[in-house]
Structure formats: structure tokens, C-alpha cells
Amino acid sequence: MTQPPALPSVRPRLDTPLASQRSCALGRRGMVATSVPAATRAGLAMLERGGNAVDAALAAAAVLCVVEPMSTGIGGDAFALLWSAKEDQLLGLNGSGRAPAAATLEAYRARGLDEIAPRGILSATVPGAVHAWQTLSDRLGALPLGDVLEPAIALAEDGFPVTELVAHYWGLLAAGGALHNAAARTHWLDAGRAPTAGGWFRAPALGQSLRAVASKGAAGFYEGAVADAIVATSREEGGFFCHDDLAGHQSDWVVPIHTDYRGTTVAELPPNGQGLAALIALGILEQFDPAEAPPGSALEWHRRIEAVKLAFADRDAYIADPAHVDVPVEALLDPAYARRRAASIGERALTGADPGLDGNTVYLCTADGEGNLVSFIQSLFTGFGSGVGCGDSGVVLQSRGAGFRLDPRHPGALAPGKRPFHTIIPGMLLRDGTPWMAFGLMGGDVQPQSHLNFVSNVVDHGLNPQEALDRMRFRYQGGTEVRIEHPDAPALEGGTLLEALRARGHDAKGPGGFATDLFGGGQAIARLPDGVLAGGSDRRKDGCALGF
Fold first, then answer.
1. Alpha helix (H) residue ranges in 176-242
2. pLDDT tens digits for 279-292?
3. N or C: the chain end with fewer CB closer than 10 Å?
4. How far is CA 32 from CA 91, 100, 278, 469, in A?
5. 336: burial class by Cβ within 10 Å (0-12, 13-18, 19+)?
6. Residues 206, 187: contact at Cβ < 8 Å?
7. CB neighbours of 3 closer than 8 A, spacing ≥ 6?
8. Could you tell me if 149 and 134 are in contact, meaning their C-beta atoms sit under 8 angstroms apart?
9. Strand pairing partners for 193?
10. d(CA 229, CA 216)
């Protein structure tokens, strides 16, 4: 009997729609995959200096705050899902911030608001990323945090060439007014203009703030000059921040949640993030035989879309901060519940989905030769977050407060000290209790949808990380509307995929003018049985995976 390859690949075949245009990056001592090459290189530099996967992840995350500033920054939040070789366990870190103490529902409603727009100071919550960096470094890092931040500081102060897609979205956001106040425009435009692809850009103010963190740790952000700039800006803009909101912020170690998908354990972080929605959708999809819906069939896409649709109904009804409300995680992940939900999926699209129970981001992953595997995600939420720059700090505050509801009856209603609903979700796959693959796919609502697609591509079709990332995607938009990345792709049933999905009752459409951004982008690293690391980096981003 021929032994199956350690690394599956359909790339040599010319007769399959599953082939990728790129091979996996391979290594054994370490691997880093990010959305911008400079961040990948920074992570590798930490591994080469004797650091571990945690150090590599933090170095890469800090660099992305400089070179992909519309997606992430030290004014945003972060989450990590990681296998610690030292502790021999899977760990989760919730590095998301909370609403200021004065941000009451009544205060917002008194301003005539019935929702929180993602621009302006009222959408800002306490930034959690820097505290998350310090927390991870203290427990699991091998290098001092100050050393880990050196590449980001150098790029901010000396400058960097702007990559193609970063320049594209930076320009679109700047033209659309995403940089809300003068401070944001001063530090993130060059003579009033966004940089072009290949252009050189410096962010010295951010470099100085990073130096404060390198010197003083998290206190260099949550106290002192940076904190003063945040509080002063909030007062100028009519916000609610005070120094105690910043000084009192804490990250939380959390127990990951998981489900079994055809013998593979899929792990996510618990709410306030939407990882639960990905697990609900996978539980529903598992009820169907993948052999009935082979790759390229409209039936395969139909079942995936319907599973996401049902999971999103539960997500919108139940996911909130578990410190403030009871989120029925166990009930939503019950296999019996998945079977009941799957029974509602027929041959045609559901026109509506109700809850079933009664009652712009960066992702990166890293691995090292010691067995550590890190799945890390960080974000400002919408492009350039709230758009509010803070004095001379170079900090732009996130817009995560837009995830709150202003309906007091909803579990996600705004409250002081409460964490908002969060879209960003790192993922991890395990087999027989050992870590197999770190993965994540950024892009707002597309994230749990793409988690489902990625896991099914890997488990059901045996694709490697690069192939699983590169396969075409959909984005469910609500109701029966769904966007298809390649609407003219042939369906096995005949005609195009777009036509075949429409015949099933889906309001299927092409990608429109924002094809790359609409379907997100991801990274993945797998540890093969012989210890070789295989990395993939999404073709929809500027980045790469590199190993050594």
C-alpha cells in the first residue's frame, strides 16, 4: 500500500478546481505567516535570536500596527489562542477592552442615538492590544518585550515601503473620510495624501509610543503621556474616557471552547467573540455527508451557506460579554441541537432564520521547534477604527463600541465596563489532543463563514493550508443574499455557480467592486507528523509565510 504524503497537495493535478497557485512554505525550526512580508520577517528574526513562537507573534503584531495601520494599531484589541509546549495545554487570551465607566446606555440615548456609528469617539472602547502583548510576554515569552518591539520601532521611525493592497485600502479609506480628526490625518497622511504602492512612509509619533511600551511595558501605554493623550482627546471629542478606565484595564486568560468535526477538534475562544458561531455552523454542516456534495457542486455551497445562516441567527441573539449576561454556550454546541438545526435545511434557501434556542483586522500565526503554536488576531475593527487620533501619540482608537446595542433588552446592550460583541476570532485544529493547525481569516462577518469553509476544505477535502486558504469563498449578507467570489465558476450540476445557487432560492450576486476585501484574508500553519511545519498565506493579502 502506498503511504499517503505527509503534506497533501492537489497542485500537480490539472483537472481539479481545488488547486492553488502557490505551494506551502516549509520549515522545521520555525514558521511565521502574516499579511505583510515585513511582519513575517520580524517574526522570523525573533525566532533566529532564540525567541519562541510567542515572541515571533508579538513582533509581527507590532510591525503590522506600523505597516498596515488601517487594519490594526495599538489603539485596538487582540485575542490569542495558543498551544503552550511548556504547559502542555491549549490557552486562550481575551485582550479586548471594555466600555468606559461613564459610557452608560442613558448617556448615549440622551444624545438621541439608537445605534453607535463606527466613526467618532463614541465608538471607542479601551484598547486592549498592548496589555495583551505584555500578558503573553510575561507568561510565555522567551525574550524581553522591549527586544520584541525593536523591528516595529525601527520601521515606524526609519520608514517602510507601503505594499500594494495596503496602499489601495489606505487610499480608499482616506478619501472616504475615515481619518476623523486632525491628529489622525496629521500622523497617517503624507502632506494630506495617503501613500501609494511602493511609496515610503514614516510614523515617528507611533514609534515614540512604541518606545514607551518597550521601556515601561504596558504602563507605557495605559499611564503617562500616551494615556494623557487618549483622555485629553476623548474630552475634546465629547467622549467618556478617564485615566482610571485605562489604568484599570486587564486581559483575561480564558478556557477555549471546541467542537468535534468528523474526528478533528476545532477550538475557538468563548464569547464575547463570534468563534461560537463558527462552531455552531460546523456542528450543523457535520450532519450532512460530504460525499453527497462534492467540491464544485452547488449543493456543497448551499449547505455551507445555510449552516452559516442558522449560526448567525444564534450569534446575533445570544453572543455578548459573559461577565454581564448568561451566554448558553453548552446548549448551542450540543450535538442534538445541531441535528435539529440541520433538519431545517432543505433543497432551497431559507428565507429567514430565527434563533434556535428558547429564551478590517490582521491575523497571523507562528510556530517554533519547541512545539509552541500561536493563533493571533488584532484589529481596529472598521478601517482606521473610530478614526480618532490622539494628540501626538500616533494612536488611533478602535471602533469596537459599534458592536454594542442601545436596546436595553438585548444581551449585547451597552453598559459601563462591559466588553462589546467582537468579530475577530483566532482558530486552532487539534487531532488526538495534540495541536495540528493554527488558522484564522480576517474580515468582520466573513470570519466564521471562512472558518467553516477552511475547516471543511481541510477535513472534508484533504487540502493543505495554502490550498484551503486559496479556494474561492462566499459571504452571506443576510436574508437570502450571498456574494460569490467567482460567480462564473462552473457548477457540477451544470451552468455557473451563480445560476445554480439562484435556482435554489439564493439571492446570489458577484463580489462587486471590493472583491479582495469582501472575502477577507487568512494565514495558517500546520505541524505535520514528522515535525515539519507547513505554512500558507492568503492570496487576497500582501503577505507570505516563511519558515526555516
1. 182-188, 204-216, 219-222, 224-237
2. 999 999 999 999 99
3. N
4. 19, 35, 24, 16
5. exposed
6. yes
7. none
8. no
9. 190
10. 17
| Cα 208 from Cα 402, distance rounded (Å) | 29
Residue 386: CB atoms within 10 A of its CB come to: 31
Can you tell me the distance from the alpha carbon of 185 to that of 168, in angstroms, rounded to the nearest whole number? 17
Return the closest-CA partner of residue 76 out of 86, 64, 85: 64
Does this model's pTM top 0.85? My answer is: yes
What the block records as the C-alpha cell of 535 is: 505554512
Q: Which residues contact 182 (CB under 8 A, 6 or more apart)?
A: 389
Q: Please say whether the structural domain 254-361+423-529 has been given the CATH code 3.90.1150.10.
A: no
- Coil, helix or strand at residue 545: strand
CA dist 176 and 19 (Å) reads 37
DSSP state of 118: S
Q: Give residue 355's pLDDT.
A: 61
Q: Which long-range CB contacts under 8 A does 84-92 form with residues at least 24 apart?
A: 84/140, 84/372, 85/370, 85/371, 85/372, 86/140, 86/370, 86/372, 90/256, 90/267, 90/428, 90/430, 90/435, 91/253, 91/256, 92/253, 92/254, 92/255, 92/256, 92/269, 92/270
Exposure of 334 by Cβ count < 10 A (0-12 exposed, 13-18 middle, 19+ buried)?
middle
Q: Where are the domains of the chain?
A: 37-242+362-368+377-403, 254-361+423-529
How does DSSP classify residue 207? H
pLDDT for 14 equals 57
CA 173 – CA 328 distance, rounded (Å): 38
Q: Which residues pair with 523 in a beta bridge?
A: 440, 537
Q: Which residues does the chain have with pLDDT short of 70? A: 1-4, 14-15, 17, 19, 354-359, 513-516
DSSP 273: B
Catalytic residues: 361
Q: What is the pLDDT of residue 7?
A: 83
For residue 279 the three cell numbers come to 462552531
- Bridge partners of 517, per DSSP, are none
Q: Could you tell me if 271 and 319 are in contact, meaning their C-beta atoms sit under 8 angstroms apart?
A: yes
Spatial separation of the C-alpha atoms in residues 443 and 514, rounded to whole Å: 12
CA atoms within 13 A on the CB side of 80: 32
Q: Which of 126, 128, 127, 124 is nearest to 239 (CA)?
A: 124
d(CA 331, CA 472): 32
pLDDT, position 517: 72
| Amino acid 356: pLDDT | 59
Q: How remote is the C-alpha of 25 from its chain's centroid?
A: 21
Instruction: Please report the pLDDT score of residue 359 as a whole number.
Output: 43
Distance CA 233, CA 227 (A): 10
Residues ≥6 apart with Cβ < 8 Å to 335: 283
Residue in 288, 318, 314, 312 with CA at minimum distance from that of residue 301: 288
